[in-house]
């Protein structure tokens, strides 16, 4: 069953709404039921374990994705989290639209929730988060010999990456002699499967708990599910890359984003675009951050050129489009056209048997690595809807 749109989401643009409905038919996002099931068995057990440990936690860092500050909240845990000392860390701020971040901060402020945008890979932003954490703990720090800080959130929002950065900062500050290995971090959801503690301070002893990412068994509406998929919190195979890419294209077109790409690229066109015409086999690994190896210059130029090609192709199709993006059939036609031009822009062989799937995967990788720009997918709720 498709439930009603969440009360916080602004009324969806009609073309986009039609595509969302059409793309997913009448499937619901329910645990164990329907064609779409994103609540793997381990999540129920993990949720119970998290609830138990939450009772003992002195503070919770709730990690959300900056691109979807509301859709990445685990609604079922909210009542318990509301009752704790909590800081909401809006992670991956490097991928979100920086121009509206202040609105989100104001929004959480109006709900009396502490919120801080961070990038788990940036020491300075994690440092700011720790200052807030320390401030909120100051009275218990004086009282208790041992403190527990829990890090919770939906899958793939960067909980483990944050813990590694926190530990690095703590190791340099307190010389904690704990030789435990780093928390495992990975690009796909579901990397952390067990709760694990890391000591970050002495006197008082402070432990941070890494937890498996958990979703709610029933996602409240289809668009929330698609946003979670686009941000990488739900495995691609659950919804399918083609549907996720179709949703992304619908969002970009209805927002008119490709029209802005013209100005962006005008500045780049003269410089690099025709520089590297040599054959270069596309490898999604080129787009993944690799801390061990500095990026190869020709890889960087190749990816930049690829992005320019993609953005120009998207700009051209939208600028020349005669239909109305608010009309779902028109929008669907535009998206079909864009799948074709993207195939060329992404250098996918004409006859590739799974060309559409390959286009979708590559396009999603560009989006998820921020190569297409910074986006926030959730709308900030109107102030008068704040309860
Ligand atoms: N761009 C960007 N990527 C990040 C940031 N933080 C984490 N990541 C990446 O996001 C992916 C997921 O990070 P994890 O730390 O494994 O996420 P998690 O929340 O622990 O995931 P689960 O254990 O599956 O619940 C990894 O590829 C990280 O490198 C960030 O601030 N910005
Ligand atoms: Mg993890």
From TrEMBL:
Cellular-component GO terms for this entry: mitochondrion
Keyword Nucleotide-binding found: yes
Residue intervals of the CP-type G domain: 47-217
SUPFAM superfamilies, per database record: P-loop containing nucleoside triphosphate hydrolases
Keywords: GTP-binding, Hydrolase, Mitochondrion, Nucleotide-binding, Transit peptide
Gene Ontology biological process: mitochondrial translation
InterPro entries assigned: G_CP_dom, GTP-bd, P-loop_NTPase
Subcellular location as annotated: Mitochondrion
CDD domains referenced in this protein's UniProt entry, alphabetically: YlqF (cd01856)
Gene Ontology molecular-function annotations: GTP binding; GTPase activity
Predominant location: mitochondrion
PANTHER family with a match to the protein in the record: MITOCHONDRIAL RIBOSOME-ASSOCIATED GTPASE 1
Protein name according to UniProt: CP-type G domain-containing protein
The species this protein was found in: Salix brachista
């Amino acid at each position: 069953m498709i439930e009603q749109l969440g009360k916080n989401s602004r009324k969806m643009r009609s073309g986009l709404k039609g595509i969302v409905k059409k793309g997913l038919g009448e499937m619901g996002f329910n645990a164990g039921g329907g064609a779409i099931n994103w609540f793997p068995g381990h999540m129920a057990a993990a949720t119970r374990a998290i609830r138990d440990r939450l009772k003992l936690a002195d503070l919770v860092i709730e990690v959300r994705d900056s691109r979807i500050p509301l859709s990445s909240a685990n609604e079922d845990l909210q009542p318990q989290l509301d009752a704790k000392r909590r800081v909401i860390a809006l992670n991956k701020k490097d991928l979100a639209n920086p121009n509206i971040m202040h609105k989100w901060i104001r929004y959480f402020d109006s709900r009396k929730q502490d919120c801080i945008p961070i990038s788990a890979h940036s020491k300075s932003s994690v440092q700011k988060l720790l200052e807030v954490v320390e401030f909120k703990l100051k009275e218990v720090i004086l009282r208790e010999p041992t403190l527990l800080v829990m890090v919770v959130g939906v899958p793939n929002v960067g909980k483990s990456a944050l813990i590694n950065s926190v530990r690095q900062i703590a190791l340099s500050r307190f010389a904690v002699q704990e030789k435990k290995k780093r928390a495992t971090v990975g690009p796909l959801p579901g990397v952390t499967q067990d709760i694990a503690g890391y000591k970050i301070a002495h006197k008082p002893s402070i432990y941070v708990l890494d937890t498996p990412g958990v979703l709610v068994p029933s996602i409240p509406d289809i668009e929330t599910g698609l946003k979670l998929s686009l941000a990488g919190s739900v495995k691609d195979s659950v919804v399918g890359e083609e549907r996720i890419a179709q949703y992304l294209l619908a969002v970009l077109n209805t927002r008119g984003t490709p029209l802005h790409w013209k100005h962006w690229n005008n500045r780049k066109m003269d410089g690099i675009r025709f520089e590297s015409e040599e054959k270069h086999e596309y490898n999604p690994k080129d787009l993944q951050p690799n801390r061990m190896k500095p990026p190869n210059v020709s890889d960087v130029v190749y990816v930049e050129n690829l992005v320019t090609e993609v953005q120009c192709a998207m700009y051209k199709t939208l600028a020349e489009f005669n239909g109305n993006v608010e009309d779902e059939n028109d929008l669907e036609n535009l998206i079909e056209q864009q799948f074709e031009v993207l195939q060329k822009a992404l250098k996918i062989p004409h006859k590739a048997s799974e060309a559409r799937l390959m286009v979708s995967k590559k396009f999603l990788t560009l989006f998820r690595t921020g190569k297409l720009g910074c986006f926030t997918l959730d709308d900030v709720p109107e102030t008068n809807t704040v309860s």
